[in-house]
Amino acid sequence: MTAAHSPGDDVLVRLLRQLTVENGEFVEILRQAHRMHRTDLNALAVIMEATRSGGPPSPRELAEALHLSASATTALIDRLESAGHVHRTRSATDRRRVELRVEETALELARSLFTPLGEELSRTWTEFGPEERRIIERFLTVSIDATVRTKKAVLPPGRPRSGGPQ
Questions:
Q1: pLDDT at position 137
Q2: Which Pfam families has this protein been placed in (predicted)?
């Protein structure tokens, strides 16, 4: 990389930044319409993804994923339980472990919120062939990995984010 070229000038960085802003605005509109905290939506996404990819997370795993303190995580889970979106259960394999499980209401909410965007994206992506889609998948995967690494690097160790409304 030359001194005259900075990462911010790169068209891919610019487009990713624009996509991030558009996604953020989309989620903010949905959050406000459903009177939910941004952290609550993020928590539901984390719980659903963890369940899909390996099993329901514990409250501690949720706290780590969202960079929240234990007390903020408890308040978050209490809100989600009160809304009927999640429930706490004991693990079938380790009774000491508490697991977070999504309720059908959370799945219905996710479908109602994100199906329109998913359908629009799917229609748009039909113009890409299988090889292009593999390249895009690889690009997105390495971009997500880079974002996760950078996030970890800038977050002070042992210092969770604030648990307040977002």
A1: 96
A2: MarR_2
What are the structural domain ranges in the chain? 14-154
- The CA distance from 112 to 127, in Å, is 26
Per-residue pLDDT tens digits for 25-52: 998 988 888 888 899 999 999 999 998 8
CB 57 within 8 A of CB 99: yes
Q: How confident is the model at residue 3 (pLDDT cuts 50, 70, 90)?
A: low
Domain 14-154 class, CATH top level: mainly alpha
DSSP 1-66: --TT--GGGSHHHHHHHHHHHHHHHHHHHHHHHTT--HHHHHHHHHHHHHHHHTSPPPHHHHHHHH
Work out whether the CA dihedral 8, 11, 16, 19 comes out positive or negative: positive
- Tallying the residues shown for the chain, one arrives at 166
Q: Is this structure's pTM higher than 0.85?
A: no
